[in-house]
Design brief:
The radius of gyration is 20 Å and the shape is globular. The model has no long low-confidence stretch (mean pLDDT about 80). It contains eleven helices and no strands. Helix 1 (about 1-15) packs parallel to helix 5 (about 70-105), helix 4 packs across helix 7 (about 130-160) and helix 6 (about 115-125) packs antiparallel against helix 7 (about 130-160). The protein has helices spanning about 1-15, 20-30, 35-50, 50-60, 70-105, 115-125, 130-160, 170-185, 190-215, 220, 230-254. The protein is about 80% helix and about 0% strand.
């Protein structure tokens, strides 16, 4: 599923033919223009990191391979680190591709596209029908993938926090009811998508802060405890994420 998403958005970037010089400048000189840009930035951050996935991945990997000594644990850690780096590069590349395509096709032609159905129509008009189809297919597969991850993560988190086991299908039904209700009430899907990702960005602090605390505790981590530089960088990033979220709330309400 991830491969299909990557190929779909890579194809769109090729068709859009963006100015790579402008892309490079934009990557290293980010800027905000109004509350909407901050909202989208928070949404991209939430979509890339997906804090709930931290709990799911921990649950899936904690008993998969257990190191018998410090050397084996460090080797497992190195492999997990590579796994995470690859995953984050793929997630970041997909989000980056969406922004690049939007700038190269829509912004360049003076269009402000705020709905997914309008984006699909403009893809057909500005590029080719196959590009519009790849856009729709990429979003559909990405939605199915993230929805399954969200449901399973909710299952794991719910089971862990209430410390009780209930029927597997009941747990999954409880976690999937809220998004189905949003769809059922006819909420604009594009706005619901952006807001859901922004809410995810708010959740990063609730996953990141405990994560830095636990991984900086030698009694818990043993020889894999964070180095002082790693812990300091973790707290700095946590502070930046929390500050971004607080600033977004301030701008929206004040």
């Amino acid at each position: 599923m991830i491969l299909i998403v990557v190929l779909a958005f890579a194809f769109q970037v090729i068709v859009a033919k963006p100015d790579m010089g402008a892309v490079a400048v934009g990557m290293f000189t980010p800027k905000f223009e109004g509350v909407d840009s901050i909202l989208l930035a928070a949404g991209i951050l939430g979509a890339t990191v997906m804090p709930h996935a931290i709990y799911l991945h921990s649950s899936l990997t904690q008993n998969r391979i257990v190191g018998m000594n410090e050397a084996e644990k460090k080797q497992i850690f190195k492999l997990e680190f590579i796994d995470i780096i690859i995953a984050m590069i793929i997630a970041g590349a997909v989000n980056l591709a969406m922004v690049i395509v939007s700038a190269a096709l829509f912004f360049k032609n003076g269009l402000v596209v705020e709905d997914l159905d309008v984006a699909f129509q403009q893809f057909s008009h500005l590029a080719e029908l196959v590009t519009a189809i790849s856009f729709g297919l990429g979003l559909l597969i990405a939605g199915l993938s993230s929805s399954s991850v969200g449901t399973m993560a909710g299952d794991v988190v719910m089971q862990g926090f209430i410390n009780k086991r209930i029927n597997l299908y009941l747990r999954r039904a409880i976690t999937i009811i809220p998004p189905l209700a949003i769809i059922g009430f006819g909420v604009n899907p594009t706005k619901a998508l952006v807001i859901s990702q922004v809410i995810l960005s708010f959740g990063i602090a609730f996953a990141l802060v405990p994560l830095v605390m636990f991984t900086s505790n030698r009694q818990i981590m043993g020889g894999l405890v964070n180095r002082k530089m790693t812990a300091a960088l973790g707290w700095l990033i946590s502070g930046l994420v929390v500050s971004l979220n607080l600033f977004l709330v301030y701008q929206m309400f004040v």
